Request: fold
Amino acid sequence: MSVLSEHSGVAFRRAEPVMGTVVSFDVRPQGLAAETTRAAIRAACATLHDADACFSLYRPDSPLSRLRRGELSLDEAPADIREVLGHARRVRELSGGWFDPWAMDGGVDPTGLVKGWAAARALSILEGGGAGAAMINAAGDIALSGRPTVDRGWRIGVRTPEAPDRLCCVLEVDGAVATSGQYGRGPHVLDPRTGLPADAARSATVCGPDLTVADGLATGLLAAGRRGLSGVAAAGYEAMIIDASGRMLHTSGFPFLS
Reply:
């Protein structure tokens, strides 16, 4: 069940169970009518459920599952799959191959950037609906638009991988923030060069203009560790990792607030 709440007429917040997690919304209408805001949030949630139905590997009848089994050709697959694989090819190049959905057992698996892609698409619906500012958080893949107040941007806390109830830093950012790491599930990302669980970083956070790209780069950094930081910077993004020994390493422009 999703929950929608209003706070003093200023913010609309919703928690939507989808894609195996709970996606949270914080929408600031900033002059948009309340019912129009609610309708935009409902439409944004619907696009998340569409993405889940298309890409979930827990659903044997999803188009991606069928594609991986060879029951569906790429030409027969939904256009969303071809779009996401196009993004995946770009991120594979930008990451120097540390993110590579084609290196996984069982067939191509682009799910390392699907949540970011879906959240970015949902945000575009809110923007198109006229919302003044919005944040969508899909399990650490965060799409941002506008400014929540006139005097500051969105502030995002990054959890420590060892104690998820504590923050390792706070950021003030525009655009997108993606964090991948061993939060509760343990190692769940594979190193495309070895096929073994990625262990070069305990967590990785990437900031930049495109959440789909940031999500894929953050996934790749779990395997690359510090070796991948220069490539992220060269792609026009900023990154921070907690490496296997617990050290924090980051690119020069990473937007720390504290």
